[in-house]
Structure to design on (344 residues):
């Protein structure tokens, strides 16, 4: 049975769930694809784990972030991290799940570049490197014969890039609109349906663990803009930069909310891509008002959605998908199965 060795860079909540699902699905991979899948390397910011025979899940289970993560792992070593280690670890696939800076793409950019240069397949969950240079990474993967898969970075459980690439293959897509940030949608939902101020709605989202301690990245529209940048370059094949997007976030007042409610309008923080007939793509992020009969008006809570307009298949709307670390990990492993299906 062919071995497939997996390296995971970044072992926070999402990386831990990736390892958990790989362990749970190991029998599935053997039965369906005839492969023996093992996690052989796990990297943190300053140390990692490595065992060419495979790191058992019973050990990785105890390395959960709440337990101190890799910092307290007894077998962790500073030698088992960094781009040079990834290049030499012998993995077939790198799953990148660490925090990254979308201005520089680091540290993920260096990890991914090292892996792709070795002919590894790369599955990307963090957005920074893709925002910084998706076209360059995609070109490198193509040159070296590897796959670059990005579902986890583009709204995760909500199918976005696959909807466009696979379900609409052969069609011309003229427009893409998405509710890509569950936190922003949850805050707007509370404001509209529970008459809360933006401050009170944000505080409730934080209490429930939906919003970060500093929610500005989500509420100001930048999380949506990052996902939109990646989708523009992956779906439309352009070279859009984050700075090319007109971005505004949630700045609504209770007076505006009352007026919208009275008029039967529903606000949603939406990222939009439009391709003109001559091929140019424009992008924007901001609050859009929808009539009550529009599908996006029914996207409530922390739910996400995407609408794609195509020539021959018409309009498609997909709503749903969990917004939690396990769902994000599952989206990455959907990508892994696509690679397996193609390669075995």
């Amino acid at each position: 049975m062919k071995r497939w060795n997996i390296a995971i860079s970044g072992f926070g909540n999402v990386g831990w769930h990736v390892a958990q699902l790989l362990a749970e699905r190991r029998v599935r991979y053997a039965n369906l694809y005839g492969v023996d899948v093992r996690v052989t390397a796990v990297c943190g910011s300053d140390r990692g784990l490595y065992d060419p025979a495979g790191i058992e899940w019973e050990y990785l289970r105890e390395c959960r972030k709440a337990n101190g993560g890799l910092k307290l792992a007894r077998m962790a070593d500073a030698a088992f991290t960094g781009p040079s280690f990834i290049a030499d670890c012998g993995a077939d696939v790198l799953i990148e799940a660490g925090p990254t800076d979308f201005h520089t793409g680091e540290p993920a950019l260096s990890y991914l570049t090292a892996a792709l240069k070795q002919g590894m397949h790369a599955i990307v969950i963090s957005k920074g490197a893709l925002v910084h240079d998706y076209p360059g990474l995609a070109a490198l993967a193509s040159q070296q014969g590897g796959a670059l898969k990005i579902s986890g970075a583009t709204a995760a459980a909500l199918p976005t890039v696959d909807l466009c690439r696979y379900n609409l293959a052969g069609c011309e897509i003229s427009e893409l609109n998405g509710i890509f940030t569950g936190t922003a949608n949850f805050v707007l939902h509370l404001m509209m349906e529970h008459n809360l101020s933006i401050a009170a709605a944000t505080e409730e989202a934080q209490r429930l663990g939906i919003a970060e301690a500093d929610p500005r990245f989500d509420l100001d529209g930048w999380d949506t803009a990052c996902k939109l940048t990646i989708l523009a370059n992956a779906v439309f094949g352009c070279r859009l930069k984050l700075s090319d997007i007109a971005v505004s976030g949630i700045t609504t007042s209770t007076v505006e909310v009352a007026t919208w409610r009275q008029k039967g309008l529903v606000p949603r923080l939406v990222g939009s891509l439009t391709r003109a007939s001559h091929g140019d793509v424009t992008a924007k992020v901001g609050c859009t008002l929808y009539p009550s009969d529009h599908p996006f008006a029914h996207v409530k809570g922390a739910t996400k959605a995407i609408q794609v307009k195509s020539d021959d298949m018409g309009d498609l709307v997909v709503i749903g998908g969990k917004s939690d670390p396990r769902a994000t990990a599952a989206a990455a492993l959907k990508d892994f199965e696509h690679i397996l299906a193609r390669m075995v």
